[in-house]
Sequence to fold (260 residues):
Amino acid sequence: MTRALAFALLALGCGEPAPPAAAPPPAAERPAEPAPTPATDDGFVCARVIVVAWQGAAHAAAAVTRTEDEARARAEELIDRIEGGARFADVAREASDAASSGPRGGLLGTYARDEWPEAHAAIAPRIAALRVGELSEALHAPYGWVIAERCPIELAHTRHVLIRFAGARNAPPELTRTRDEARAAIDVVRAELLGGADFADLARERSEDGSAERGGDVGTLGRGRMAEAYELAAFALAENELSVVVETEFGFHLIQRLPR
Fold:
């Protein structure tokens, strides 16, 4: 698998600002939580987490004042709520202290079993032992007490063209292109693609991302490993379909989903 690019990776981010989360659908439109089933994972593990930090825990925000014992008690309360019928994702959005995963319903990411980030080494074995849809007990990690749920594995192989603008995340300081100019540039690229231009060739020529040398190919990634708007678009595409223009904190993208 091609390793994820800097634009796509998500850190735990307990003390980092998170990108805006999409509003959750009304309760009546949400599917029921899956019952625990054996995982068929192709060597991958997907997890949602709720983090309850304590004062002094790694990455804990300055506003966190609870003690470690109080954090443990709070985690147990949240477990009771979920076991009582509350949706894991809803509780994560409301109560998790992880600034990146919390707004995404606790989605921590999808990792190969031997590629889990070192930050999560304390909980990775326990998550891997869960069945899909199964809830963990409160797990101790350097950044807080963690409640974990194993997710089904969903993978998407994509390539993209990225046009950045001044002030976008990871944009070089010398870049002066405005957001409107970047949007106009990506619209030109899309028109060329719809007119029959080769995606890989255009990516090599125009994309402002490390994937350009590979024709825009970012490899196969699972849920939680991409910028949220990029991920929503990628998983909505059929194989070989071209996306509309997608904006993330990194700039404007055109995405094509490839066969795995």
